[in-house]
Amino acid sequence: MLNALDNLMLEKVADMHDIPKGAYNIRKNGEGIQKNTTENIDIITKKDRPGIDVIIKPNTKKESVYIPVIVTEQGITDVVYNTFEIGENADVEIIAGCGIHNSGDNKSQHDGIHEFFINKGAHIKYIEKHYGQGEGTGKKVLNPKTIIHAKENTTVELELIQIMGIDNTVRDTEIQLYDGAKLIITERLLTNIEQKAKSNITVELLGENSSAQIISRSVAQGKSEQTYYFDLIGKNKCRGHIQCDAIIMDDAVITSTPKISAHHSDAQLVHEAAIGKLESVQLIKLMSIGLTEKEAEDTILKGFLK
Amino acid sequence: MLELKDISLSVENKANILNKVNLKLLDKKIYVITGPNGSGKSSLARIIMGISTPTAGNIIFNGQDITQLDITQRAHLGIGYAFQSPPRFKGIKVRELLNLSMSSGSGEDKICDLLYSVGLCSQEYLDRDMDASLSGGEIKRIEIASILARNLKLAVFDEPEAGIDLWSFNRLAETFKEMHEKTNATIVLISHQEKILELADEIILVANGGIERNIPKEDILRKGFIDDKCKCRANCGKAGDKNAECIG
């Protein structure tokens, strides 16, 4: 059912070298094509609209769910609505990710709308990798929307990574944190040629002792454009930190707007944003241990986006 | 092994940073370059590594004119340079930087030895990022380790003691001694520190963009060349002025 191209795309976006042992749902060109559930993790296909419900039982420990999406045909616009219900005190990893291979001249697009209900004490790590390839002129477009309701004492780790090859992306992330909830977002983005990427992250720190850390690192090359809008809203005794770091190269354009708003006297919010080119002293250091200028540049960028 | 012939360096709107410098370094010797701030010591080191290009003169390395070679080419010839203020890298681990520095085939044991030789515990540091989470002293020690990692013919250290605490400093001097004993590298240390000066086979005093004098080892410890306190006062125009900062 999966051909060599499919396998390559799955490896790129979900590090899948084989069909996973646990729970998974593979979606290809707008249809679910393979699925597996486990005793603790159920995956139910939605009846009213495209998408799945992933239900994870309370106290499920150290299990993973793979839900990759691949688009290998041109001219497709796939919209999917996935809902995740994470049981109390569960500790799971969710590997999403979308890969588009478009060798034609028509646009291929995937819009994934994911909503998470994370119940008390649960810990999730959500990894979303985006990747595009293909020779054609058809655009490869990915617009993920992620909505998270993190209840008391939950820990939410998000890794949002756009590796390469996506022409246009608008990422919307909206998160609500209740008492003691802890959020860590790591965003990595690389754009080149004339690609455009927009990332909007809004985090509401609603609960006492909730905390959020957003670490965004990006590299813009060629004539690409990146726009960031990060908004931390502290409505209780809470801590929040945005760190937005970008390397600009060639004729790229980067706009970064970190915003923090406090509605409580014990809200501690910090934002840092920096855009700059590759530091020449870094290049010189690596060249002085024997790397060529190109190898030095690749090493620095690879590390930066790791 | 290295010869600088009439090396000059000038930049726009500034007097010559280096003015017709001639210098010969021999195999397996330790040289310490010292002199006041702004005298051209670091410029000299950067010219040797190829980071700065001289406006005139030639650099001969083991019989080859390397004046036009770039940094990478010089690195491949066995020249290394430890930065006075080493850069930090986001997302690159100490282990990765040392791996990049090492000759191929060296194993994990070698990395541990390297960190140990600069006074760092490998277990604690190998997986640390080379970013702002490391202190200035830690970054500096890792920089020195990255030079020790390489199989060099000529190693230049630009103020290796800067940023290193006193406690670790004695260990650092030992490290250079060991490097001298165990390798065939010619070692150039830019320094003002007595302990480092004592390691020298020859001290090169740089002032006003030129080499003011070379002081051979046998004369280093002889009274008159080096003041007991600052080690160079006798060679300095400000000698005798107790308030003068003779060496930066």
Named CATH architecture of one domain in chain B: 3-Layer(aba) Sandwich
Strand content of chain A: over 45%
Tell me the major beta sheet of chain A.
10 strands, mixed
Provide the helix percentage of chain A.
10-25%
Please identify the structural class of chain A as seen in this structure. mainly beta
- As a percent range, the share of helical residues of chain B equals 25-40%
The SSE string of chain B, one letter per element, is EEEHEEHEHHHHEHEHEEH
Stretches with pLDDT under 50, minimum 5 residues of chain A: none
SS-based structural class of chain B?
alpha/beta
Distance between the termini of chain A: 32 Å
Q: Choose one word for the global shape of chain A.
A: globular
CATH H-level superfamily title of one domain in chain B: P-loop containing nucleotide triphosphate hydrolases
Instruction: Give the overall form of chain B.
Output: globular
SS field, number of helical segments of chain A: 3
Major pleated sheet of chain B: 6 strands, mixed
CATH top level class name of one domain in chain B? Alpha Beta
Largest Cβ-defined interface: A-B, 22 and 22 residues
Task: Briefly characterize the structure.
The complex is a heterodimer of chains A (about 300) and B (about 250). In chain A, about 10% of the residues lie in helices and about 55% in strands.
Question: Helices and strands in order, then pairings?
Answer:
The complex is a heterodimer of chains A (306) and B (248).
Chain A: H1 4-14, E1 23-28, E2 31-36, E3 41-45, E4 52-56, E5 61-66, E6 69-71, E7 77-86, E8 91-95, E9 98-101, E10 108-118, E11 123-133, E12 140-142, E13 145-150, E14 155-164, E15 168-177, E16 182-191, E17 196-205, E18 210-220, E19 225-234, E20 238-248, E21 253-262, E22 267-276, H2 280-288, H3 293-304
Parallel strand pairs in A: 1-5, 1-6, 4-7, 5-8, 6-9, 7-10, 8-11, 9-11, 10-12, 10-13, 11-14, 12-15, 13-15, 14-16, 15-17, 16-18, 17-19, 18-20, 19-21, 20-22
Antiparallel strand pairs in A: 1-2, 3-4
Chain B: E1 2-9, E2 18-25, E3 30-34, H1 41-49, E4 56-61, E5 64-65, H2 71-77, E6 79-82, H3 94-101, H4 108-117, H5 122-125, H6 136-148, E7 154-158, H7 166-182, E8 186-190, H8 194-197, E9 202-207, E10 210-216, H9 217-220
Parallel strand pairs in B: 3-8, 3-9, 6-7, 7-8
Antiparallel strand pairs in B: 1-2, 1-4, 4-5, 9-10
